[in-house]
From TrEMBL:
Phosphotyrosine protein phosphatase I domain segment(s): 5-139
Keyword Ribonucleoprotein: no
Presence of the UniProt keyword ATP-binding in the record: no
Keyword entries, A-Z: Arsenical resistance
Species this chain originates from: Luteolibacter ambystomatis
Pfam families: LMWPc
PANTHER family attached to this UniProt entry: ARSENATE REDUCTASE
Record GO biological process: response to arsenic-containing substance
InterPro entries to which the protein is assigned, alphabetical: Ptyr_pPase, Ptyr_pPase_sf
Domain of life where this protein originates: Bacteria
Protein name, as recorded: Arsenate reductase ArsC
Length: 146
């Protein structure tokens, strides 16, 4: 097991938002942290439009898989970040957990309409997540330099 601090991003289904955040955070933080995502009720897949939305910003999440948060209960999770209300309510405390943040976002998996209309929702949520998580990552990196 890696000795890097673990940042765990949680949402209910672990099919969209948490994977978008995981990819963006891993890209922003590099190899200083172990970034993971999971769900309280995993969907069992990563949404293809989430993968496509991330490809547009040159971040590859095609190898991600949908995981249950129980997979991390025996790990020392330093920070938990929830990205939907249900996961925030269902989130257990993890051994060694020092930080908890809640940054809620719309679930793009519920987008309707044509594929182009759905993709527009995925892009909007991706960009909102990118803004929040890149700012979070910058703060974490600043604190390492202090």
């Amino acid at each position: 097991m890696s000795s890097l601090p673990i940042i765990l991003v949680l949402c209910t289904g672990n099919s969209c938002r948490s994977h978008l955040a995981e990819g963006i955070l891993r890209n922003a933080l590099g190899d200083r942290f172990r970034i993971e995502s999971a769900g309280s009720k995993p969907a069992g897949y990563v949404h293809p439009l989430a993968i496509r939305a991330m490809e547009e910003i040159n971040i590859d999440i095609s190898s991600h898989r949908s995981k249950h948060l129980d997979e991390f209960l025996s790990d020392t999770v330093e920070t938990v970040i929830t990205v939907c209300g249900h996961a925030d309510q269902a989130c257990p405390m993890f051994p060694g957990q020092m930080n908890r943040h809640h940054f809620p976002f719309d679930d793009p998996a519920h987008a309707t309409g044509t594929e182009d209309e759905q993709m527009a929702v995925f892009r909007r949520v991706r960009d909102e997540i990118r803004t929040v998580f890149e700012a979070y990552a910058a703060g974490r990196l600043d604190s390492l330099r202090a």
